[in-house]
């Protein structure tokens, strides 16, 4: 067997090892979440003024598995990020290892910040708007599975959007994104942010502003971070040119 084939097999074996660790962590967190699923459920519905409804016995199991799975996945995110870093670590220089290692706590912080923003800011705004829209015309009754699916739709997108600064830094380090390009396309980015914010928030000015401002702030922070990474990248390139 050639050295190239052995190298590929080694990478596949390492990848399999990382996947097994991630799946193992997810299973452990899932079991732990399932044990405390009633407490988790009570925490999520403590601010609701109405009891949630199930339409059949199997809906109870579905909700239990949904809650346990989501909590387990959220707890597994740090493991996923760290295992990815361990997988790519051998291909990085010592400096690159240190730099990329700093991305891990930052990505976790932004992930949690996005979830928190969606759950504590956007979700109450949308729910209050829907309650006021229904008024006395309808008798409000939410099924448990529909409610938690709604909660996920109001939170998960923000956990992804809040990763924008790190994604921009990574793409800048690869030379795909430049701060000049981000500044040049700022008006298109703002338009996209406004459209997304209007679509996911209630149709009133206050709610739109509360969603738009943090996303615009994230874009501006991304420009600053992209500028820092770009300058450091250019500086290293010049140093390499001078050494050669």
From TrEMBL:
Segments passing through the bilayer: 20-41, 61-88, 108-131, 151-176, 188-206, 212-230
A GO BP term here is: intracellular protein transmembrane transport
GO cellular component terms, A-Z: TAT protein transport complex
Q: Which terms are listed as keywords in the entry?
A: Cell membrane, Membrane, Protein transport, Translocation, Transmembrane, Transmembrane helix, Transport
An example Pfam family from this entry, by short name, is TatC
Does the keyword Transport feature in the UniProt annotation? Answer: yes
Q: Which InterPro entries match?
A: TatC
Q: What membrane topology does the annotation report for this chain?
A: Multi-pass membrane protein
State any single GO MF term: proton motive force dependent protein transmembrane transporter activity
Say where the protein is mainly found.
membrane
Entry function: Part of the twin-arginine translocation (Tat) system that transports large folded proteins containing a characteristic twin-arginine motif in their signal peptide across membranes.
* Family stated for the protein in its record: Belongs to the TatC family.
HAMAP family for this protein: TatC
* Protein name in UniProt: Sec-independent protein translocase protein TatC
Q: Which organism does this record belong to?
A: Anaerobacillus alkaliphilus
